[in-house]
Amino acid sequence: MILMRHFAVLLVVAAAVTIASPPAKAQEKAGDYPSRPVRIIVPFGAGGPTDVFTRAIAEELRKSLNQTFVMENKPGAGTTIGTDYVAKAVPNGYTLLMVSGTQTVNETLFNHKPYNLMRDLVAVAPLIESDLVLVVTPSVPAKSMAELLTLARAKPGTLNYGSSGPGSNYHMAGELLKHLTGIDIVHVPYKGSSGMRTDILSGQIQILFDSVPTMAALIKADKVRALGTSGKKRSPILPDVPTIEEAGVPGFQATLWVGFMAPAGTPQPIVDKLNREITKIVSRPDIKAAWEQQGAEPITMTQPEFKAFMEAQIAKWAGVIKANQIPAIN
């Protein structure tokens, strides 16, 4: 009987130790991370401006952390497919998400997403910010932002602006312009960015917001006319083009930004390590100079600062969506 009691006690202790000890994978320390390849889920198609810089940081992280960072494109449903995939991934630091302004817009625009961005994922670090440029097809008589606004007010509902789809940076830049100026221009969404670029060149649409690096060559070749850029200061690639705010629209700012998130519950030491490494990389003078030549400005924030930035972006675009009565996507 005494022997059986001792055996029972040992079983209870062993069970308690087993319960108290998390799986080996969860016990990995930040100092050991990463010990195997890390996947970066990109919720867009390959080849866009965001994709280019994410691939560049993946290569730099490989060098600094001595481990492979593998890009995996999971486009669809306005980034919600790829975002949901990461939200449901194991929170161990081995599945990261490329996040952009589109996902902050989607928090208001999509009624029935299977995730909540700031609840189910954790902000890690920002990467770059890039200006957009507003261009018009040459047949539009406006030679300045002021002239475009005058034309739009004289002919409400007759000028079309394109985007790569509802909730995209290009769509919301157009809606912000409408919100701040009161003009009535018509949104024409495309399935991706190639169609909108083809149609601005052919004159099927009259107005387009697009990334500065993508449009710069077409502007210089007089294929389209640039009226303003979307940042706080002039773009070094298009120094002769005023900012939209400078051209007479106070408060206008709608940049294309990119960063990283991870599933909620990812150990804080791993999140902090990734933030430190990414910050270190984008702060390097050679990286900064190379990326600025491509129209992208590296940005650095602490993890709490990036979280606050994303929350502010969600609130900003929620206001624009409500003010312009943009219908939700179900």
Q: Helix and strand layout, with pairings?
A:
Elements: H1 2-20, E1 38-42, H2 49-65, E2 69-73, H3 80-87, E3 95-100, H4 101-109, H5 117-120, E4 121-130, E5 132-136, H6 145-154, E6 160-163, H7 169-181, E7 186-189, H8 193-202, E8 207-211, H9 212-220, E9 225-229, E10 256-263, H10 268-282, H11 285-293, E11 296-298, H12 303-323
Parallel strand pairs: 1-2, 1-3, 6-7, 6-8
Antiparallel strand pairs: 3-10, 4-10, 4-11, 5-8, 5-9
Helix pairs in contact: 2-10, 4-12, 7-12
Question: What labels would you give this structure?
Answer:
disordered N terminus, 12 helices, single chain, alpha/beta, 330 residues, five-stranded mixed beta sheet, 44% helix, six-stranded mixed beta sheet, D-Maltodextrin-Binding Protein, domain 2, globular
CATH architecture descriptor text of the largest domain: 3-Layer(aba) Sandwich
Strand order of the largest sheet: 2-1-3-10-4-11
Sum up the overall morphology in one term: globular
| Percent helix | 40-55%
Question: What is the straight-line distance between the termini?
Answer: 66 Å
Which blocks of ≥5 consecutive residues have pLDDT under 50? Answer: 1-27
Q: Remind me, CATH topology of the largest domain?
A: D-Maltodextrin-Binding Protein, domain 2
| CATH homologous superfamily label of the largest domain | Bordetella uptake gene, domain 1
**In the CATH hierarchy, what is the class of the largest domain?**
Alpha Beta
Order of helices and strands: HEHEHEHHEEHEHEHEHEEHHEH
> Radius of gyration, Cα only, in angstroms?
24 Å
Indicate the structural class.
Answer: alpha/beta
Major β-sheet, in short?
Answer: 6 strands, mixed
